[in-house]
Write a sequence for this structure.
């Protein structure tokens, strides 16, 4: 193999631009030869095939990744099967949609890849390691949502730019909206309950007080049938927007968007 | 065809929207093995050739050109997604990262070119699950060698069927770049960049079977939207 590499490197050196004559000279030498071969001009490439142009990635800054949970898995404190279980990552959310996880790290343990994820359980902020084989393919988002409980505002950022801002209603003092870093994991619409407005996003945040709520007290971001209460501290923990605002947000915010509630 | 929960194998039907590639294979079964291989290779090149065609020439090309173009587009989707995912996850460094950045840019350019040429006839991008091979340098390197060798063989397999001269020029323009990619990653992986004096082509069925064996193509998005009433706290 070493000999093969030596030969290939020698050939590479021969055709290196450093030892080639100018490109103009190469054209003068090769074009007449090609014409004399076939008697026809060289076929030209269409502009669409100008593959000298690289297509770079979009803005990589702030991108985060998520994957669907294909098989329910036990999340563990370290990336090994023998470490302590932290919780279960189900394949479905309480609303029947595919559960997803947002990853912020990976590790290899004995040839098996593991992924570090945030869980949808109390206490909020619980993290753990799940086997990579339990997850589907990665999707990437460059959006992030910031909910400021002091100012009663919601701001959607994308690639470092503000895309949308709105006033919100948040949890009342007895049923607070929890602080922390979460993510959007599903999108519900077409339902008849006017309390949620026309559109609702589910997150992996849980109400710290309404633990016996159906579905475990998932904190959502949704519309309302009481827009006069916005802005305010009036909800059971969810983040409420005017219906026009949630519809606008629905056009801008993809699944997997990280959510910071501060 | 089900390969697992939420996973379906890639089929010729996924890009052979007008049945042209399937018809080609059925015709080819009536011929000798050598003729079969040549014609399969030709069909592949036709697809590649279509990529290179000017719009006026594309409209004049046979319908099989569209199927072959979509076949090539499916391969480019696969490669572009692979490199893009590796770039975004950021587990690569040094020479391997440089290779992924440059080759990823090429593969995305190929996708862009095929989609532009096919217009509304372009197949939709499937979803992929690379099962963690983009998340470490070792698995990335091994998979990239396989992908680039496969792409070079697949383009070579389709080339003889190209009808349009301009298409053929385009096919060869991409094929040689894929061969350069293969040599580059082979060198980084410790293999001979060019192991043989003559490379073998692969026909479309062989390529599809190889891709299916990886289970990288899922063709099904997760159900993250629903019309059920929320259980949120409100």
């Amino acid at each position: 193999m070493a000999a093969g590499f030596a030969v290939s490197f020698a050939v590479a050196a021969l055709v290196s631009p450093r030892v080639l004559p100018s490109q103009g000279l190469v054209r003068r030498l090769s074009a007449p030869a090609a014409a004399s071969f076939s008697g026809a001009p060289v076929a030209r490439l269409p502009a669409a095939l100008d593959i000298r142009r690289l297509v770079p990635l979009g803005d990589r800054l702030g991108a985060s990744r998520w994957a669907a949970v294909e098989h329910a898995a036990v999340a563990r404190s370290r990336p090994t099967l023998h470490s302590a279980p932290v919780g279960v990552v189900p394949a479905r959310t309480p609303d029947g949609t595919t559960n997803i996880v947002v990853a912020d790290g990976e590790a290899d343990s004995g040839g098996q890849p593991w992924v570090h994820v945030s869980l949808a359980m109390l206490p909020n902020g619980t993290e753990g390691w799940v086997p990579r084989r339990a997850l589907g393919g990665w999707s990437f988002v460059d959006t992030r949502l910031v909910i400021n409980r002091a100012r009663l505002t919601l701001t959607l950022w994308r690639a470092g730019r503000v895309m949308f801002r709105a006033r919100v209603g948040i949890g009342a003092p007895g049923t607070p909206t929890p602080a922390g870093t979460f993510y959007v994991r599903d999108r519900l619409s077409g339902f008849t309950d006017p309390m949620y407005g026309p559109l609702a996003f589910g997150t992996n945040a849980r109400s710290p007080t309404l633990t016996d709520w159906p579905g475990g007290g998932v904190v959502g971001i949704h519309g309302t049938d009481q827009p006069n209460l916005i802005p305010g501290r009036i909800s059971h923990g969810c983040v409420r927007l005017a219906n026009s605002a949630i519809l606008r947000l629905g056009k801008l915010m993809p699944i997997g968007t990280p959510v910071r509630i501060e | 065809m089900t390969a697992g929960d939420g996973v379906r194998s890639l089929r010729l039907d996924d890009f052979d929207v007008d049945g042209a590639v399937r018809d080609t294979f059925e015709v080819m079964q009536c011929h000798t093995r050598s003729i079969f291989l040549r014609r399969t290779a030709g069909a592949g090149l036709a697809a590649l050739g279509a990529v290179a065609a000017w719009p006026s020439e594309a409209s004049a090309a046979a319908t099989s050109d569209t199927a072959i173009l979509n076949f090539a587009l499916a391969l480019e989707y696969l490669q572009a997604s692979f490199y893009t995912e590796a770039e975004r996850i950021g587990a690569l460094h040094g020479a391997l990262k440089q290779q992924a950045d440059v080759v990823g840019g090429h593969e995305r350019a190929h996708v862009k070119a095929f989609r532009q040429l096919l217009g509304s006839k372009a197949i939709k991008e499937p979803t992929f699950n690379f099962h963690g091979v983009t998340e470490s340098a070792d698995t990335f390197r091994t998979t990239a060698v396989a992908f680039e060798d496969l792409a070079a063989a697949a383009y070579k397999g389709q080339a003889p069927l190209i009808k349009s001269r301009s298409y053929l020029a385009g096919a060869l323009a991409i094929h040689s770049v894929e061969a350069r990619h293969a040599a580059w990653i082979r060198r980084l992986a410790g293999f001979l960049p060019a192991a043989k004096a003559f490379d073998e082509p692969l026909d479309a069925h062989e390529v599809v079977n190889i891709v299916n064996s990886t289970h990288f193509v899922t063709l099904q998005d997760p159900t993250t939207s629903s019309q059920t009433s929320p259980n949120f706290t409100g």
